[in-house]
Write a structure and sequence with these properties.
- With 146 residues, the protein is α+β, with helices and mostly antiparallel strands.
- It starts with a helix and ends in a 5-residue tail after the last strand.
- It contains 2 helices and 12 strands, in the order H-H-E-E-E-E-E-E-E-E-E-E-E-E.
- 28% of the residues are buried.
- The protein has one domain: Rieske Iron-sulfur Protein (3-layer Sandwich), CATH 2.102.10.
- A 5-stranded mixed beta sheet has the order 1-3-4-5-10. It has a 4-stranded antiparallel beta sheet with strand order 6-7-8-9.
- The structure holds FE2/S2 (inorganic) cluster.
- FE2/S2 (inorganic) cluster binds next to loops.
């Protein structure tokens, strides 16, 4: 694993844990990484994510194969789902999850859980992807690469 990938995954997982997202069996970063990051491939501009992943945590990080950026998927209280690209809209840095949304380590932009800008320099909201449930999977419609 390259240093950049390791840091990216480690930061996301540790911040998730610190933020209080329910991660069963969270005893350290190495054991939590397999629970919190779901890796999958893009097929016909769609990602499939098992719905049962959300039985233990309302937030899942999805890592599409070949992408630099992860997608944060959240199950809302009304049983709908939201998918946000974790790419800062200022200068495209990978974001990290916080308890109340997302933050960018490069210049300090902050976004709320819906992807709206709370603090600049970013001015635009995060990219949303269409997500819907189909049988036991969530289907996330995505471009080939962001
Ligand atoms: S790249 Fe995120 S604030 Fe500048």
């Amino acid at each position: 694993m390259h240093r950049r990938q390791f840091l990216k995954s480690s930061c996301n997982i540790c911040i998730l844990g610190a933020a209080g997202f329910a991660l069963p069996g969270l005893t350290g970063c190495s054991s939590a990484s397999s629970l919190a990051v779901y890796k999958t491939g893009v097929v016909n501009k769609r990602l499939q994510v098992p719905v049962n992943l959300f039985s233990s945590s309302a937030v899942q990080i999805v890592r599409p194969a070949g992408w630099y950026y992860d997608i944060a998927v959240e199950k809302k209280e009304n049983n709908t789902y939201k998918a946000l690209l974790m790419q800062c809209t200022h200068q495209s840095n990978q974001l990290t999850v916080t308890g109340s949304g997302f933050t960018c380590s490069l210049h300090g932009s902050q976004f709320d859980k819906d992807g709206n800008v709370r603090k600049g320099p970013a001015e635009e909201a995060l990219t949303h992807y269409k997500v819907y449930k189909q049988n036991d999977y969530l289907i996330i419609e995505v471009p080939t690469t962001p």
